[in-house]
Amino acid sequence: MFSSVAHLARANPFNAPHLQLVHDGLAGPRSSPAGPPGAPRRQQYSCDYGSGRFFILCGLGGIISCGTTHTALVPLDLVKCRMQVDPQKYKGIFNGFSVTLKEDGVRGLAKGWAPTFIGYSMQGLCKFGFYEVFKVLYSNMLGEENAYLWRTSLYLAASASAEFFADIALAPMEAAKVRIQTQPGYANTLRDAAPKMYKEEGLKAFYKGVAPLWMRQIPYTMMKFACFERTVEALYKFVVPKPRSECSKPEQLVVTFVAGYIAGVFCAIVSHPADSVVSVLNKEKGSSASQVLQRLGFKGVWKGLFARIIMIGTLTALQWFIYDSVKVYFRLPRPPPPEMPESLKKKLGLTQ
Question: Which reaction does it catalyse (predicted)?
Answer without folding.
Answer: phosphate(in) + H(+)(in) = phosphate(out) + H(+)(out)
